[in-house]
Amino acid sequence: MDITRRDLFQIGGKLLVLASAGATLEQIVGAEAPSDAYKMADHWWGMIIDIDKCIGCGNCVRGCSRENGVPKGYYRTWVERYQVEEGKQPTVDSPDGAMDGFPPLTRGDLKAFFVPKLCNHCADSPCVQVCPVGATFVSPDGVVLVDKEYCLGCRYCVQACPYGCRYLHPGTNTVDKCTLCYHRITRGLTTACCENCPTGARQLVDFKNPKDPVHEFLRKNKVEVLKPYMATRAKVYYKNLDGSVR
Amino acid sequence: MRRWFEDSGHLIRPALVLLAGVGVFLLIRAAVVPKAFGQYGHYRPAALGLVRQHPLAYAGQEQCVMCHDPQATARQAGKHAHVACEACHGPLAAHASDPSIKPKLPDVADLCHRCHEKDAAKPAWFPQVATAQHYGGMKCTDCHQPHNPHP
Question: Which regions in chain B score pLDDT beneath 50?
């Protein structure tokens, strides 16, 4: 059988059309639906933090580190101690992220308090917006996560986060951050930090659950998010947050 | 090929090349874009499963209470009612799934002061002591019962 150049082009063209149509179809149909009891659409996670209940024990930092295997010297959550003197810049310390608590503060003439910090799981996250490959994202239930198999380690997001909540994991060279214990909350447990908090200063909340205490908390208390002027729509609400907190 | 108008081949041939280009693009795209990318947003939905696979370290309060009833009851009656077991005893998911794994008892010398050491930054309502002056070398548990600590 003789194949002319015309025949070759025609057959090649037809094959190409078929293959690309098939590949596109596979992309559309091949999506797998997650099959378990946890429905992402039914949740919108966040956290409430009561400054007046935090005792700076560092239990949350240790709990987070053990639960998530956070490398030494890095923190997904940490506690800061503020000492505010009139007319001066506030003094902030957080020795080893408060992993072992704080050395006792004896000066009683200052305004002093603890501020636990973690990823604010912003609904309009600057970190997500700058990722060039789609390796970090806000999940359908409102948790900012990193796809460690897809992250390039370019650190754009580390620079973009206004709260300093991200770091480059020294072992994997990919970006790591608070997952709001996604593996726990999707199994009906609370986060490691909230589980370990002895005073209930931090509490995991689900804004989509009408029975969640968050609704009463927001209705009855004076609350603020960190850096509201950044318009990140942060979902970690602080009760009685002092204006000196950055 | 029948000519619609003079030199129409000049249009048809580049159009075919363009089509072939689009086809090649679609093929490469199908090969390199991960499965189901974009189902929920600009990311791989498989990443959600990846994060969820992480093993538990802390079993959670409900697991402890299922077996350790006397301690849970004592705790419930006292000032430590809202302190989760694992907040002092450490992460024990391994023990919860296999009780033959015996956890170590926490060391009170390293434990109580973390919360109760006096610090001017702590809220006034929280019970605090300057341990150096308070106990004179005794162990906290010599006087206080950790599951129901009020003297």
Answer: none
